[in-house]
TrEMBL record:
PANTHER family: DEOXYHYPUSINE HYDROXYLASE, PBS LYASE HEAT-LIKE PROTEIN
Name of the protein in question: HEAT repeat domain-containing protein
Any one Pfam family match given in the protein's UniProt record, by short name: HEAT_2
Origin species: Rotaria magnacalcarata
Function according to Swiss-Prot or TrEMBL: Catalyzes the hydroxylation of the N(6)-(4-aminobutyl)-L-lysine intermediate produced by deoxyhypusine synthase/DHPS on a critical lysine of the eukaryotic translation initiation factor 5A/eIF-5A. This is the second step of the post-translational modification of that lysine into an unusual amino acid residue named hypusine. Hypusination is unique to mature eIF-5A factor and is essential for its function.
Gene3D superfamilies listed in its UniProt record: Leucine-rich Repeat Variant
SUPFAM superfamilies: ARM repeat
Single GO MF descriptor: oxidoreductase activity
Length: 94
């Protein structure tokens, strides 16, 4: 979990990619709060991976805060972030 706050974007990016692969096992309150924060990361790759991970977390991640973060991400300046946010809400989160 420390890697998601690393100063280097590529470490944060890899951390979110790993969380996405863990799926519902990783859907703790701490992880979901960190995912929400990651949707506002300065790096678009990190924001994109956070949205992708949210889509893989399943029903447990379908909280109002997560859904709000995904909706906000659909308005991101980066097209990949918008795409991942839309993909997440088509999966099991929304």
């Amino acid at each position: 979990i420390n890697a998601i706050s690393d100063e280097y974007y590529y470490v944060r990016w890899d951390a979110w990619a790993a969380f996405g692969k863990l799926c519902e096992i990783a859907a703790t309150n701490e992880v979901m709060a960190a995912l929400i924060n990651a949707t506002r990361d300065e790096d678009s790759h990190v924001r994109s991976k956070a949205c992708e991970a949210m889509g893989k977390l399943g029903e447990k991640a379908a909280t109002k805060a997560v859904i709000a973060a995904l909706i906000n991400a659909t308005r991101d300046e980066d097209s990949d972030v918008r795409s991942k946010a839309c993909g997440a809400d088509r999966k099991s989160v929304v």
